[in-house]
Amino acid sequence: MRCFDSRDEVLDLRHVLASGALPPAFAPVRIDDELYWDGGICSNTPVEAVFDDNPRRSALVFAVQLWQPKGAAPRSMWQDSGRQKDIQFASRVDSHVRRQAQIHQLRHIVRELTRELPAAALARPELREMASYGSGTVMHLMRLVAPRLPDEDHTKDMDFNTARIQTRWQAGLQVARQAIAEQPWRAAAGPMEGLVVHDLGSRGQDRR
Questions:
Q1: Which of 69, 85, 95, 106 is 20 to 30 Å apart from 45, CA to CA?
Q2: What are the distances in angstroms from CA 30 to CA 54, 123, 167?
Q3: Tens place of pLDDT per residue across the chain (208 aa)
């Protein structure tokens, strides 16, 4: 998957169209002689693009989770299809976050081990390069889980009518306001925590 960044290149209408080109309803968009579909096919919430950014710095990241990892047992083929999408996309986001948590903890470990090295050892270029992987930054991921709407079905990933967008927007606004009011990221992180996840929405709030 390719992440386009306005710091590196000029973004135009093609990039906007590509970000919403969800197959099979929309054709891929050509950019730089390559065809691109909606990045959600690979990663609906590509948090790694933020967490791997350089230079490294502590940050508060808001991520919207549109898919419900838990739900009632389906009772029809259409509900089967809806639950399949929920599980597929929600699980992918969770696996990306777990990987990032491991990486950031390892960065803290490298930093602590580097502090134990004598100055003579750090003069060696190969050890300086290894030490550069260390970091003391803390990333707070505020994950806003979209509330389940009462009349949602298996077409929610393609349902862009005006009323649906407005309903979803209002539901998300309430969750976002709750997160800002509670500010769970202000709690102190552990000394070896490089990534702290806060969930808010249908999962309830927790810290991991």
A1: 106
A2: 28, 48, 32
A3: 888 889 889 999 999 999 989 888 889 999 999 999 988 888 777 888 888 888 888 999 998 887 777 778 888 888 888 888 888 777 677 788 888 999 999 999 999 999 999 999 999 999 999 999 999 999 999 988 877 777 777 777 777 788 888 888 888 899 899 999 999 999 988 889 999 999 875 444 444 5
- In the numeric block, which tokens belong to residue 87? 């599980």
Domain residue ranges of the chain, discontinuous segments joined by +? 1-42, 45-199
Q: Whose CA is closest to 134, among 105, 104, 107?
A: 107
Q: Which residue type, as a one-letter code, is found at position 103?
A: I
Alpha-carbon distance values, 116 to 63, 111, 112, 122 (Å): 36, 9, 7, 10
Q: Global pTM?
A: 0.77
